């Protein structure tokens, strides 16, 4: 296999920087395109959230090698950091103190990837054509960059799932966007003013929703006359509330104890088997037309938080020939390994370049985006993905196929209030496979 010398990496998050570091170890030249003005731009959006995984599983070996040549200090290996701490204590030093610094372009928002001189329909000499990546800089100008290979580590954070059970925005959702938030707002911090004293509906049944509900309960328990509604697409309350202090998932157990107390005190209303049909406004409040197991009808609230997971942005690869599973939207060979109905993050088999390959060779999607709509991604898995891919692009097929990741049997899927975007194991809702 011939070595690929110039490799474009999209995204300067943990997996993107790891890809660049492994490429450098293999004697290749990475060019990292980051849409934000700093590394970890997406993680910074949920900096207040504590992940599932301890530090010892969050540091990539190739990045660590680069950092050890500087004055960087390794955080406590057993500590479980906030997302913001991962950015500040790991990603920023890697991007500023090491040789990675000269390989990153900030404010570069990728809008398209194609085979140079070839549309999706063009087959003549397609296999030997390199790649062209089109990106828009912060000044609005559009640039083109050519590379021998492309690694897409852009993640899924900026493509949240809408409210609709059918995967579409419900009527009125877009029109009332000013009162609807997606993901995990900092309820106890910078977004406190938005939710203090407000009646809030949280939609979603995974650990993103768990974070939000627990924080709203703390906020409501201070001095706020608000009320919290938690809408679940499923109806299995035992699965949601867990086993309290004896629960194998501490986040679920903590939620169960807090939720039971809140329900008994009337501070939290659970709405199960919920389907939202529309959102409108009346007297400066949102009116949510919904159906639930507890009854149907309008619900008046001030704010809605949608925590129903994320999906990959496939628009940038419209001119590429990909091999994607039609359901999960992950590489076809990977999809059966990550089906959230069958796997948690600890049971997904390590995999590398061969599983992540597409019809257009030397193009790979890695990290959270490689899992499509499945929430079972684990950071360590992403690091192994890019190690294998870097070896494959360097022409070392033996190293690419020699998987070097051994997942711990316990621990990495259990922690205080984590998020699927980094450490997985959000419980999938019964009707979908995309909930986070």
UniProtKB/TrEMBL annotation:
It is an enzyme of class 1 (oxidoreductase). Its EC number is 1.18.1.2. InterPro entries: Auxin_biosynth/cation_transpt, FAD/NAD-bd_sf. The keyword Membrane does not apply. SUPFAM superfamilies: FAD/NAD(P)-binding domain (SSF51905). Keywords: Oxidoreductase. One of its GO terms (molecular function) is ferredoxin-NADP+ reductase activity. This is Ferredoxin--NADP reductase. It comes from BD1-7 clade bacterium. The lineage of its organism: Bacteria, Pseudomonadati, Pseudomonadota, Gammaproteobacteria, Cellvibrionales.
């Amino acid at each position: 296999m011939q070595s690929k010398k110039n490799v474009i990496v999209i995204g300067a998050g943990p997996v993107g920087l790891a890809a660049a570091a492994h490429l450098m170890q293999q004697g290749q030249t990475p060019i990292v395109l980051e849409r934000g003005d700093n590394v970890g731009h997406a993680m910074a959006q949920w900096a207040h959230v504590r992940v599932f995984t301890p530090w010892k599983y969050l540091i990539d070996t190739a990045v660590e090698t680069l950092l050890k040549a500087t004055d960087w200090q390794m955080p406590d290996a057993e500590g479980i950091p906030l997302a913001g701490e991962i950015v500040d204590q790991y990603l920023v030093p890697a991007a500023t103190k090491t040789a990675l610094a000269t390989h990153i372009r900030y404010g570069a928002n990728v809008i398209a990837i194609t085979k140079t001189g070839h549309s999706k329909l063009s087959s003549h000499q397609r296999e030997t054509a390199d790649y062209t990546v089109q990106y828009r800089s912060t000044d609005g100008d559009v640039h083109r960059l050519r590379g021998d290979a492309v690694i897409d580590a852009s993640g899924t954070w900026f493509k949240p799932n809408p409210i609709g059970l059918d995967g579409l925005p419900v009527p009125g959702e877009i029109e009332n966007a000013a009162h609807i938030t997606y993901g995990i707002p900092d309820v106890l911090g910078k977004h406190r003013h938005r939710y203090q004293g407000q009646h809030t509906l949280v939609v979603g049944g995974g650990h993103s929703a768990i974070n939000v509900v627990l924080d709203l309960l703390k906020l409501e328990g201070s001095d706020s006359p608000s009320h919290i509604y938690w809408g679940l697409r499923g109806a299995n309350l035992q699965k949601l509330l867990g086993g309290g202090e004896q629960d194998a998932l501490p986040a679920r157990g903590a939620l169960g104890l807090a939720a039971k107390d809140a329900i008994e005190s009337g501070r939290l209303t659970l709405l199960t088997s919920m389907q939202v049909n529309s959102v409108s406004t009346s007297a400066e409040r949102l009116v949510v037309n919904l159906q639930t197991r507890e009854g149907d009808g309008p619900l008046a609230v001030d704010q809605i938080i949608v925590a129903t997971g994320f999906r990959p942005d496939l628009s940038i690869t419209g001119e590429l020939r990909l091999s994607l599973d039609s359901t999960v939207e992950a590489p076809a060979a990977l999809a059966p390994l990550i089906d959230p109905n069958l796997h948690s993050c600890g049971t997904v088999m390590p995999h590398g370049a061969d599983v992540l390959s597409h019809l257009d060779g030397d193009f790979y999607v890695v990290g959270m985006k490689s899992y499509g709509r499945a929430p079972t991604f684990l950071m360590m898995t992403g690091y192994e993905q890019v190690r294998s891919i870097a070896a494959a692009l360097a022409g070392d097929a033996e190293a690419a196929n020699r998987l070097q990741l051994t997942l711990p049997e316990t621990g990495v899927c259990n922690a205080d209030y984590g998020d699927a975007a980094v450490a997985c194991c959000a419980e999938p809702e019964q009707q979908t496979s995309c909930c986070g």
